[in-house]
Design brief:
By secondary structure, the chain is of the alpha+beta class. The chain has 14 helices and 22 strands. Strands 1, 2, 3, 4, 5, 6, 8, 9, 10, 11, 12 and 13 form a twelve-stranded antiparallel beta sheet that branches. Strands 17, 18, 19, 20, 21 and 22 form a six-stranded mixed beta sheet that branches. Strands 7-15 form a two-stranded parallel ribbon. Helix 4 crosses helix 9.
C-alpha cells in the first residue's frame, strides 16, 4: 500500500511539475501580450497617434486621419481652464428645412476643463453680475448651473509641454455643442409642412476642417433621413428622404484688450447683452451692455481721428463686378455718422482678390457675401456676434441674395396663396430681418407703375431706382452689424409734401434712420420724383453712433454726464425711436401706431391714401393693356 501511495504521489508531482510551467508559460504569454499591448497603448505619444493625419494649425490644432477621416483635437496647456467663444452658423442648407446659408446660431462662452483623465467643455453662464466688493459675491455660484456640453477621454499627453490630445469625432458629429435637430412644432401639419427626418449617425460626417490664428472651424454635414415623407418640398429638395444641413462649428479666441463696455439705455436702439446685477438694490437691476466694435483713436487728443484699427469690410469675389462700386459707396456712407463720434474713416471697404489666400471663415475678415438660391430666404441679411461677457462685436458678415436684383421677386408667391410656398422668413419675422422682401415688392411696383405711366424706359429713373434700392439695403444690413436694432418710427420724419420736395430731402434726408422698413417713395408724377429710399444715415443714426461709439472720458462722473446729455436729445422729433420687438409686434405692448412698417411721412394715413390712389390708377392702366 505504501508503494502504491508513493507511486500516486510521484505521478501527481510529475503532472504538477509538467503542467505548472506549461500553464505558467501560457498564462504568462497571454498576460505578457496584454500587458505589452496596454503598455504600448499607454505609451503612444501625440506624434504616434497623429502620424498618418493631416494637421490643421491654428487657434486649436486639429488632426484628421488621411485614411479613415478620424479627427483629433490638440489642446494646449495654456488653454486648460481658459474660456473661448463658441458660435454656430449654417454653411449650407435647404430653405424648406428652416436652415439657409449664412444663418447665425447662438454664441456663448465655453471653458476647457480637465477632470482627471478626461477633458470637459463647459458652457459658462454670463447672465449675471456680482459686484466683487460686495460680500454676497462669495455666493455667486449659488443656484446657477453651467452646462457640461461634451466630455472626451485624454488619448495622449505631452509631459514636457502639457499639450493634450483627444478624439474629436464624437464631439463634432453629435449635437453636443448646439442642437441641430429642430424641436417638433406641435402646430405643424405633417401633410402640408415640410419637416426633416431623424438624424442619421451613419451618414453624418465631418466635411471640412479649417483653423486660423483666432478661430477654428469644423464643418459637419448632418444628414436627416425620413424613409416615408408626406411632404417632398420644392425643387431645391433633391430627395426628401435624405436632406443635408451643413453646419459650421467655430471655436473663437475671446478678446483680451482694454475694451470698456457701454451700458444700454431704452431710449436708443442697440442690440446688446442682457445681464442682471445680483448685488444691486435697484428696482430694475439691469446691467445690459450694447453690441459695438472696439474703436480707439490713433490721436486721442484730436476732435476727429482715424481709428487704430478700422472696421474693415471685404466685398467677396463672388460679387457681380458691375455692382461692386455701388456696394462700396453705400457702405462708406456710414463714415459720415462716425464723424459725429470723432472718427474719420471708421469703415474701410476692400475687394477680395480672386487669388486671395484667405476665405470668409477667418474671423479676422468681415465679408459682404453673395448667394443665389432657387428659393431665396432673404434679399439681404446682416448678422453679427459679440463677446457675451462685454458686448464687444467680434465678427460679422452680410449675406446678399442675387435674386434681390436679377429676379425682383418670386412671381409664384404672388400668383397663389399656398402656405407651403411662402418665404421662409415670413414665418420667422421675429428672428430675422425681412427688409429685402419688402424692397423687392416695392421696387417691382415702382417699375410697373413707371411703365403704366409711360416713363418705364427712363434710364435716369431706372438708374436712380437701382442706386437707391441697393444703397438702402446695404446701409440697413450694415447698420445691424454695427449693433443697431430696427427703428420702425424713423419714416415719420418728413411731411407728405416734403417727401417729394428735392430741397427738403437733400437737407433733412428721407427718413430719420435707415433701420426702418419704409414704403417706396414713388412720386405721383415723374417731375416730383425725389429719392425712392434714404441713401445716407439719418439724424437718428448719427445720434446713435455718437452715443454708442464716441470715446469715453477718463473721469467716470464726467463720462456719465456726457452720455446723459447726448441721451437727453431723445425727445427731438428727428430722433424718434420705436423698435419692432417691444413697440410694434409684441402682444399687449404695441401701443404706438406710428411704430409701423412700410409707411412714410409724419402723416402716414394721407401718404397711404395717395399711394392707394396711385396703385388704383396703375391697376386700371394694366387692365387696359389686356
Amino acid at each position: 500500500m505504501k508503494e502504491i501511495a508513493r507511486g500516486k504521489l510521484f505521478s501527481f508531482v510529475l503532472v504538477f511539475v509538467l503542467v505548472l510551467p506549461l500553464a505558467a508559460c501560457t498564462q504568462g504569454g497571454d498576460s505578457g501580450k496584454d500587458a505589452a499591448e496596454n503598455k504600448d497603448e499607454e505609451q503612444k505619444t501625440i506624434a504616434e497617434l497623429t502620424e498618418n493625419s493631416k494637421r490643421y494649425d491654428g487657434y486649436f490644432t486639429v488632426f484628421q486621419d488621411k485614411k479613415t477621416g478620424e479627427t483629433h483635437l490638440l489642446i494646449k496647456a495654456d488653454q486648460i481652464g481658459e474660456e473661448f467663444i463658441y458660435w454656430v452658423q449654417i454653411a449650407n442648407g435647404v430653405v424648406d428645412t428652416g436652415y439657409f446659408k449664412g444663418a447665425y446660431g447662438p454664441s456663448f462662452m465655453v471653458s476647457v476643463q480637465r477632470h482627471f483623465d478626461r477633458i470637459e467643455f463647459v458652457a459658462e453662464n454670463t447672465s449675471f453680475y456680482f459686484d466683487p466688493d460686495n460680500a454676497i459675491s462669495k455666493a455667486s455660484a449659488a443656484n446657477i448651473s453651467n452646462a457640461v456640453l461634451a466630455v472626451a477621454k485624454i488619448a495622449a499627453e505631452d509631459e514636457e509641454t502639457g499639450d493634450i490630445l483627444i478624439a474629436a469625432d464624437k464631439i463634432f458629429k453629435s449635437e453636443s455643442f448646439s442642437q441641430i435637430t429642430p424641436t417638433p412644432d406641435p402646430d405643424a401639419d405633417p401633410k402640408k409642412d415640410f419637416a426633416l427626418g431623424k438624424l442619421d449617425d451613419d451618414k453624418t460626417k465631418i466635411i471640412n476642417l479649417r483653423s486660423y490664428p483666432e478661430n477654428t472651424d469644423i464643418e459637419v454635414e448632418y444628414v436627416f433621413s425620413n424613409p416615408t415623407p408626406a411632404v417632398f418640398g420644392e425643387a431645391d429638395v433633391t430627395d426628401a428622404r435624405n436632406v443635408s444641413v451643413r453646419v459650421m462649428h467655430s471655436f473663437i479666441e475671446a478678446p483680451d484688450n482694454d475694451y470698456q463696455p457701454r451700458f444700454d439705455d431704452a431710449r436708443i436702439g442697440f442690440f446688446g447683452v442682457e445681464v442682471t446685477d445680483m448685488t444691486s438694490t435697484e428696482a430694475a437691476p439691469y446691467r445690459d451692455m450694447i453690441n459695438r466694435w472696439h474703436l480707439v483713436k490713433k490721436d486721442p487728443g484730436a476732435a476727429l481721428s482715424e481709428p487704430v484699427e478700422p472696421i474693415t469690410w471685404w466685398i467677396e469675389n463672388t460679387t457681380p463686378v458691375e455692382w461692386r462700386e455701388l456696394i462700396r459707396s453705400a457702405a462708406l456712407e456710414w463714415n459720415s455718422a462716425f464723424e459725429k463720434a470723432g472718427f474719420k474713416n471708421a469703415l474701410v471697404v476692400k475687394i477680395q482678390p480672386d487669388d486671395a489666400e484667405w476665405d470668409a471663415g477667418d474671423i479676422r475678415y468681415n465679408v459682404l457675401r453673395w448667394t443665389s438660391s432657387p428659393n431665396p430666404p432673404f434679399g439681404g441679411y446682416g448678422p453679427s456676434f459679440a463677446d457675451p461677457r462685454t458686448g464687444q462685436l467680434i465678427g460679422a458678415d452680410i449675406m446678399l441674395e442675387y435674386s434681390f436684383m436679377n429676379r425682383v421677386t418670386r412671381a409664384r408667391e404672388w400668383m397663389q396663396d399656398d402656405p407651403s410656398t411662402k418665404f421662409w422668413s415670413e414665418n420667422h419675422a421675429g428672428s430675422y430681418c425681412t427688409l429685402g422682401q419688402g424692397l423687392q415688392m416695392n421696387t417691382a411696383f415702382a417699375r410697373v407703375a413707371a411703365d403704366s405711366a409711360g416713363y418705364g424706359d427712363d434710364d435716369e429713373l431706372n438708374t436712380r431706382l437701382t442706386h437707391d434700392t441697393m444703397h438702402y439695403l446695404i446701409l440697413h444690413e450694415l447698420g445691424h452689424t454695427l449693433g443697431m436694432n430696427h427703428n420702425m418710427k424713423a419714416t415719420n420724419l418728413l411731411t407728405p409734401e416734403q417727401a417729394f420736395d428735392e430741397a427738403a430731402v437733400k437737407e433733412f434726408g428721407l427718413a430719420g434712420s435707415v433701420m426702418d422698413y419704409p414704403a417706396i417713395n414713388f412720386a405721383p408724377t415723374r417731375e416730383q420724383q425725389t429719392q425712392f429710399y434714404a441713401t445716407r444715415p439719418g439724424p437718428y443714426d448719427d445720434w446713435l453712433i455718437e452715443w454708442g461709439y464716441s470715446p469715453a472720458l477718463d473721469d467716470e462722473q464726467a463720462e456719465a454726464a456726457r452720455l446723459d446729455a447726448i441721451l437727453a436729445r431723445s425727445t427731438e422729433p428727428a430722433l424718434a425711436f420705436g423698435n419692432d420687438a417691444d413697440d410694434m409686434r409684441s402682444a399687449g405692448k404695441a401701443i404706438d401706431p406710428r411704430v409701423n412698417i412700410y409707411d412714410m411721412s409724419s402723416d402716414p394715413i394721407s401718404y397711404a391714401s395717395d399711394a392707394m390712389t396711385l396703385m388704383k390708377s396703375t391697376m386700371e392702366s394694366i387692365c387696359l393693356l389686356y
